[in-house]
Design goal:
With 136 residues, the chain is mainly alpha-helical. The protein folds into two domains: 1-41; 63-132, no CATH class. It is built from six helices and no strands.
Amino acid sequence: MARSQDLAQAMRTALEENGDLIELQAQIEEEMLEALTRLQSGSNEHNSQYSFSTKRCKPAMPPEIILANNLIRQYLEEVGLKRTSSVLCTESGLPQSAVPDTVLRTAFPSLHSSGAKPLLCSMIQDILFKSDAKPI
């Protein structure tokens, strides 16, 4: 019993060091959310109770929603919320590979940003600066 616990701990440590553990946990959470959604909607009633591998097609999103989701994704990844970002990608249908920052910045040419912080934070800072509002 102790050997299997040692092996499990060694595997956990190795996955944590590689950064893979967070991604695996996010994938498990995504699959659980999808399974629960299918169970709640009744879309799984004709299948075995364990067959959750079918993916539903989502309607196409308008470009501004895709852009907003990519800005949120960039922010989440910059502040270290990779699991949250992974769930966002799954639920919104974003591809696994992120849109390059340069592409996002070309969508907002009037934005004054040094590139040191996420673009979404720069946008909020610009809005607050233009309205003379003080940050919360």
